[in-house]
Amino acid sequence: MHFKRSFASIALGLLSFAALASVSQAHASLLRPCVRGSPKVDICPSSGPADYDLNSPIGTHDSKNLPLCKHTEEQGQRTIVRAGGKIETSYSVGAAHGGGHCQWALSYDKGKTWVVVKTLLRDCLKGVSNGGAYSVTVPIPKTAPNGKATFMWLWNNAIGNREIYSNCADIEIRGGSNGGKLAGMPLLIANYGSDSLYIGEFPTADQDDKSEAFNKRKAITITIPKN
Length: 227
Description:
The protein is mostly beta strands. The chain is 12% helix and 31% strand.
């Protein structure tokens, strides 16, 4: 009987692990640079507690289920990037939902204010098969001051439930100025609670994808104090 119970426990454990693996493959998440909550110890050996549901959305137009970044606690490991350089980002894609809109942004004040450094409308993740590889090069402005910063990826999907996805990585910018100003577009947040912009499905070019809202953003400038 003891053997049978042990075998059953092992079987249940394997099923639970399989379920976690299945969940983690759903939807999509930022993979590189080392992202908060990453279960990939080969990429993020010290990213904190593993989130096996990292690919799930943070909310829909009806609700805000999780905060922006999904995980707010900073990790011990920071990716070093250069002002005027670039970040080679890659993604875990379980379901690309027809692509959609992506924004990449920087914050120097722990997520209170964001400056968008790249926007990709409609074609972000588009055509990627489930489990397929996907990467995007994101530039870091030459004017980005030195210091610890948060790097965000934000995605509004084109097909399916009206969702929003977000992951963040902790980075340190070097090779720039000690303090200064950073200009760029503000973060546009959609399908994240009923008070946010609503973007309906847009699988075809003739459907409104609210791209005009992105194009009408007015540039902002933030000031980063000297260290």
